[in-house]
From TrEMBL, chains A, B:
ATP binds at residues 264-268, 283-292. This is ATP-dependent (S)-NAD(P)H-hydrate dehydratase. Keywords: ATP-binding, Lyase, NAD, NADP, Nucleotide-binding, Phosphoprotein. It comes from Phaseolus vulgaris. InterPro entries: CARKD (IPR000631), Ribokinase-like (IPR029056). Catalyzes the dehydration of the S-form of NAD(P)HX at the expense of ATP, which is converted to ADP. Together with NAD(P)HX epimerase, which catalyzes the epimerization of the S- and R-forms, the enzyme allows the repair of both epimers of NAD(P)HX, a damaged form of NAD(P)H that is a result of enzymatic or heat-dependent hydration. It catalyses: (6S)-NADPHX + ATP = ADP + phosphate + NADPH + H(+); (6S)-NADHX + ATP = ADP + phosphate + NADH + H(+).
């Protein structure tokens, strides 16, 4: 698979009319990469069965991008992640995303949330850096909105350049004034070329204003079933087509200008508009809320690592022609599923999201030992 | 016992004058079902000794209603529970009830509490979704009561249809304005046919306004000794009769129009006005506060599961003619006692409610392995 594609794949490539010169071809190949674990819990769709081929083995990928640990490294080099989320109503989600980043090996994990949410999120863990800077409408008079919005932006901008990735949305809520501020934050992050993983209420925001991410290759959307449905309706003006899910996902990602989309489901499907990769290794049958937050934090860390790996790797790296946001999604999806599986072995029905987070480290160590 | 009753039971049935056609007879049979464990810690009353018979084995019951876990399930399908409780004074009780639901396998667990209580309850665990929506009188001017009450109701109504069960009362307090709002919430839940488990201060509320639950078969009351005493005085206008406890419990449940009552005691007695079931397996001699909250959360989960099981089960299910609220009480009482027993083995006098909650998962796993 390294230098070419088999005839079935070529046929699909021809269909999609995206064959071009060799480097572009490699980058844009129309490839369904299907990563299977030992337990395949559901039959794959027609397309997936036809195109069952592995180009990126997720464990090899994780080993390749996970940074070596040695005494020469400085604080922050293994990742500095910022979660934008946490409001009066929701505090668990941003905590799960931020602590997952730390537990995977990021050096620093920040949360930017409302003033009401900050003491609670701080109380979950002294490991996080929690900034009480966001404001909801109820605390802001109409006449102050402009000045408060500027202040919020200035507070986050002070830190922006230091972040390897923003995770926007866990527990963000839907307050209009808050979402306006976050839209502006996303524009600033784009100007600084900082990757943005968007989940939860961040997807609500983006679905209603696609231009926030349109054409930004460092944006990752991680919709669940319902969020994906709204996104397809809004962008493609059609309904979800499960019969040809990979093709529709490619169309969607392409339509938004090459953002990466991780469509969560029994198999997670990942596309940047050029290829589709499925992650189907078995996770857990437990559906406790919060697992999506682990995923968004994990994708944030892995895509940062993949980006650094690719930027620093010599030309021999087999990943150098890959999209780091796609690699981050493959790695994040894989580690969540492995951790969920391990937690379920231990805690069974009683498994909660915190139990899964406690398994992240061991799962990463099993794949990529720290020393 | 499946298709008939012995002569003693028939005699009791005749006494109660509720013999009717066969299906009605089965549903309304006047049966004392006495579930005994290996350690019988106190002599049963005369009636219980006479009528020691098991129709529903609680472990078989738990196995039957606990939903299978598989990859096809979505978040929420294993249960979405809401606890209404938590005020300036009390925060532990709603946490215990809500986290117990999660630890038994519910997917989502919400708490609706006052604004003062919310940050504290949130800080106990990021796993819960805590809504700071209730208001106490001290924060509400007379002129604002109507608008604030409407706002509280609207906040909860947004979520109402998603809940499989409300647990009303843990740490609710007795503030008159707050209780008025909760009364209205209960009326809305009834309109949506959502089961309601009522404990603690919720029982104070209901005892003073029986119409809130009268004739609602999806209501469960879980009174302790004192709460039961007040209920008997109010509804039956008499004192508690321990000599004929099962008969009095049946009369009480019938008088309130077929609600289910779980009378907590050395043996828990459960009745919906048609039959009485006792759960007497040995729990723990430790009487740390909070065990009633575990019970209310557990009953909420199990009755939701029982209801789904019965609604979806084919006609062959041996539970299809049973009352799901009664089944939920039997299962909840059983799992609490087993967990309390296991926790006491480990922690002895030092056992606190959190230790019992940590044993819920293992006890359920012992009875109904997740895979």
């Amino acid at each position: 698979m390294k230098d070419g594609m088999n005839s079935r794949l070529l046929l699909d490539c021809a269909k999609s009319c995206i064959l071009a010169s060799s480097p572009v071809f490699r980058r844009q190949q129309f490839l369904i990469r299907c990563v299977e674990g030992s337990i395949d819990h559901q039959p794959l769709s027609r397309d997936m069965q036809v195109l069952r081929s592995i180009e990126v083995d997720p464990e090899n990928l994780i080993r390749a991008i996970t940074p070596a640990l040695d005494h020469t490294r400085h604080k922050g080099q293994a990742g500095n992640i910022a979660v934008i989320g946490g409001c009066r109503e929701y505090t668990g989600a941003p905590y799960f995303a931020a602590i997952s980043a730390l537990k995977l090996g990021a050096d620093l994990s920040h949360v930017f949330c409302t003033k009401d949410a900050a003491p609670v999120i701080k109380s979950y863990s002294p490991e996080l850096i929690v900034h009480p800077v966001l404001e909801e409408s109820y605390g802001v008079g109409e006449e102050n909105k402009r000045s408060i919005s500027s202040k919020v932006l200035a507070e986050v901008d002070k830190w922006m350049e230091r972040f390897d990735c923003l995770v926007v949305g866990p527990g963000l809520g839907r307050d209009p004034f808050l979402l306006d501020c976050v839209s502006e934050l996303m524009r600033h992050a784009r100007q600084s070329n900082i990757p943005i993983v968007i989940d939860g209420d961040g997807l609500f925001l983006v679905t209603n204003n696609i231009d926030l991410v349109r054409g930004y290759p460092l944006a990752v959307l991680t919709p669940n079933v319902n969020e994906y449905k709204r996104l397809v309706q809004k962008v493609l003006n059609s309904e979800v087509n499960n019969e040809d899910a990979p093709q529709q996902l490619i169309s969607l990602a392409k339509q938004i200008g090459g953002v990466t989309i991780l469509r969560k489901g029994n198999s997670d499907l990942i596309s940047d508009g050029n290829s589709v990769q499925a992650v189907s290794i078995y996770g857990s049958p437990r559906r406790c809320g919060g697992q999506g937050d682990i995923l968004s934090g994990s994708v944030g860390v892995f895509l940062s690592w993949a980006r650094k790996h690719i930027l620093s790797a010599d030309s021999k790296s087999h990943l150098s022609n890959k999209n780091p946001t796609v690699l981050g999604c493959i790695a994040g999806s894989t580690i969540l599923r492995k951790a969920a599986s391990l937690a379920f072995l231990k805690k069974k029905r009683s498994t909660v999201t915190g139990d899964i987070i406690e398994c992240l480290g061991q799962c990463l160590e099993d794949i990529s030992p720290a020393s």
